[in-house]
């Protein structure tokens, strides 16, 4: 077994069955993704539309592709025909564009609303207090070709696990308050460095990159 497939097997062994593992393959070559595929992995996460599109064209068609990155509206059209879940939706305008492009493909695209939970200024996401306004707006209720199925968040990039726990618990509370009302089923939080803590805080979808594929080299 390749080391990538071994990493996946090791991770999955400890995961409760209801938790989805998204293998975050950004920057990695198709040959690496194919090793994960050979190990049984079918859910892959990418953060750039072009990269996801070209990998999708090269790889087997039973893969579920998740867009996990910050998404520009003008890129939505390139992936609307196949994307399985969009994690990083943080505005009504973006939802409206996804809705429009999904309609062209006669699809309903599942989305997660990304909530800004980190203290850091750099992280994208909708402020938690704007969530109810969005969900209750008539413009949101009119959308036919997108379905919000849950929430996504990224904790601060810090080794202070007390801080990270606080941020995850905040997202968990929002999720708990709203998931029964809205019929949600996905709480996407946790990455290589913090997924055990995210699972303790109720996550049922973790996005793991470097712990599967090794460190990324951006140069
Ligand atoms: C890159 C990325 C991940 C994975 O990060 P690792 O630390 O490599 O596990 C998860 N979520 C998002 C949104 C990312 O951009």
UniProtKB/TrEMBL annotation:
The protein here is known as: Pyridoxal phosphate homeostasis protein
**Keywords, sorted A to Z:** Pyridoxal phosphate
Primary role: Pyridoxal 5'-phosphate (PLP)-binding protein, which is involved in PLP homeostasis.
The record places domain Alanine racemase N-terminal at 2-216
* Keyword Transmembrane helix belongs to the record: no
Q: Which SUPFAM superfamilies match?
A: PLP-binding barrel (SSF51419)
This protein's cofactor list reads: pyridoxal 5'-phosphate
